[in-house]
Amino acid sequence: MSVKITAVAKQLPKYTRSTKDILPYVMDWMSGQEMRFQRKVLKIFENAGVDQRYSIMDAQEVFQSTSFEDKNDIYSREVIKLAESALQKSLTKAKLQPKDIDFIITVSCTGILIPSLDAYLINRLKMKQDIVRLPVTEMGCVAGVSGIIYAKNFLKANPNKRAAVIAVESPTATFQLEDYSMVNIVSAAIFGDGAASVIVSSYEDEEGPEIIDEAMYHFYNAEHLMGFKLRNTGLEMVLDKAVPETIAEHFPQILTPFLAHNNLMIEDVDHLIFHPGGKKIVQTVEDLFGALGKNVDDTKEVLRLYGNMSSATVLYVLERFMDRINSKGDIGLMLSFGPGFSAQRILLKW
């Protein structure tokens, strides 16, 4: 029995700004800081590889002094709407109704919402009352891939069922107004908000790339590399500058055994569906695969157009391939990195 991804759809928040339009807000925020620091910060934004981004709030609200409660209220209200729209779009693509879904997985790490997001979607869309729920809240950027892995394992044990994986994130709601650290600045320069929904099916007659393998890879003693600290002012980003170097060191262990398990080498992979964690991480991946004639052009383009939207971002990359590829037998490799530290992989066959 095969498990397939049958549809992917994104939903963008209503507010958007180009990076050049955000710079005046950044300048106002930095007023009083020394000029050398200000020039450095502007260069970080200009060289981040992000031309524009979307947000659940306008730029002036992001740079406004408000409480964690106020920001989380906006997060709670807006992510429900984004998730509903993304799910509806993916259902339409798959020619399904809400009651056709048997397992719902919701993914978010950039705010706090209890009841979890899935409960709101079930009520708003009148989904099955016996639907199986799984909210994933603390896995960061890998959680979109994680959700698909969990969906695949559920469906492998349950023929003729369908799952929806909905990832929705608002990193802009975690911006720390009083924090002038490089971590806060780099995060603000690369992150944006967005949502995406994936439909996964174990119906034999439904079309889409088959998930032929999946695996998680955990880095030992690397909890410090990425995550959030809960402060009175909200969720404070943790992002170690050693992340790209650490990823590069582990790449042979992450990919070679996984592909070998499927009698493949990287040369056999037609499509690299990689999470755009940031410009340095993308460059690291590009350096590793460029010599093999592989490119990560779609990953770079998603970063440029939307920024890093945490768990949802790799799903935006996946959607580009889903909407374009119809070559039977093509192999795709999905890969995300995130807190833990971990790498998570899915092998697809069209």
What's the short version?
The protein is α/β, with parallel strands linked by helices and 350 residues long. The protein has eleven helices and 13 strands. The mean pLDDT is 93.
Can you tell me about this structure?
- The chain is α/β, with parallel strands linked by helices.
- It has 2 domains: 4-201, Thiolase/Chalcone synthase (Peroxisomal Thiolase, Chain A, domain 1, 3-Layer(aba) Sandwich); 210-349, Thiolase/Chalcone synthase (Peroxisomal Thiolase, Chain A, domain 1), CATH 3.40.47.10.
- Helices cover 39% and strands 24% of the residues.
- It has 11 helices and 13 strands.
- It has helices spanning 19-29, 35-46, 59-62, 68-93, 117-125, 143-156, 182-190, 243-260, 279-290, 297-306, 313-324; strands at 4-11, 15-18, 52-55, 103-107, 132-136, 162-169, 194-201, 210-218, 226-231, 234-239, 271-274, 331-338, 342-349.
- Strands 1-7-6-4-5 form a 5-stranded mixed beta sheet, sandwiched between helices. A 4-stranded mixed beta sheet has the order 8-13-12-11, sandwiched between helices.
- α2 (35-46) runs parallel beside α7 (182-190).
- The longest helix has 26 residues, at 68-93.
- The chain is globular, with a radius of gyration of 20 Å.
